[in-house]
Amino acid sequence: MSLPTFDLDVLRTFVLGVELNSFAKAADRLGRSTSAVSAQLKKLEERVGTPVLNKSGRGLALTPVGEAVLSHARRLLALNDSIFDALNQTRTEGTLRLGVQEDFGERVLSDVLRSFAQLYPMISLEVRIARNAELLALVDGAKLDLALTWATTHVSPYVTHLGQTAMHWIGPRDKPMLPRSSLAPLPLVMFDAPCVLRSAATDALDRAGICWRIALTSPSVAGIWAAVEAGLGVTLRTSMGLPPALCKLDDLPPVPSLGYELHRNRQQPSEPVTQLARLIQRSLEKHLL
Questions:
Q1: What pLDDT score does 107 carry?
Q2: For residues 152 and 261, is the Cβ–Cβ distance under 8 A?
Q3: What pLDDT score was predicted for residue 178?
Q4: Which of 38, 175, 210, 223 is 20 to 30 A from 83 via CA?
Q5: Within the chain, which residue ranges are assigned CATH 3.40.190.10?
């Protein structure tokens, strides 16, 4: 046999009436008529099968059953309210889509996401770490709200130029440079073309009259670091995330600095997007000094 079920709305009226010592005041607080509240009390007593209140002068007195009902009702209502509070805390207030060029992913991204989550805990974030060309195409197609990229010749209507950082030739710290001559071109470890750093490296070597060859290409920065550490060649990157096993090289041609910028998919972004852009800029100022 199934047990009867209490109506939480009825219990809430009962608890409020007892706490106010007046069901007329409870009716006014709940925006109900006194007859409606009386009907709820009658329904409660029918459910428990005995009176829950006794007249006591002008006030109200709980019967022993009423005292038990009151205690249990308070716990039931507290549990009910805590469930809804928990559900409200898990509801998101929308989704923000961020794209980040891979070089920035390790250091900048963790700082930014931690700070943003503290400011907007109810906003869901979708983060894509990719190369410049992919990120710019996604922004142009309105599939990203914000993208942090290296500066290129790409024309974007809503772009903010954040600053410049130095590019460095990088090689293994504990391995000698491979010999260079017209018969042994400088081995390079690079991203696949098109790549702004790859173009900067080959342009600088061509201007200096240094022969080069692509020894290895990798789709990821981690792959480039691993290949350079293994002694397969040198690369050109920023110092962002430079592993301790690698070092900057001073005997190769100078290269220009590299700009970095934020692309938006609309002219007037939302406040969360604007705040995220500020957090990114502050993090870059710290890591790219």
A1: 67
A2: no
A3: 54
A4: 38
A5: 95-163+259-287, 168-256
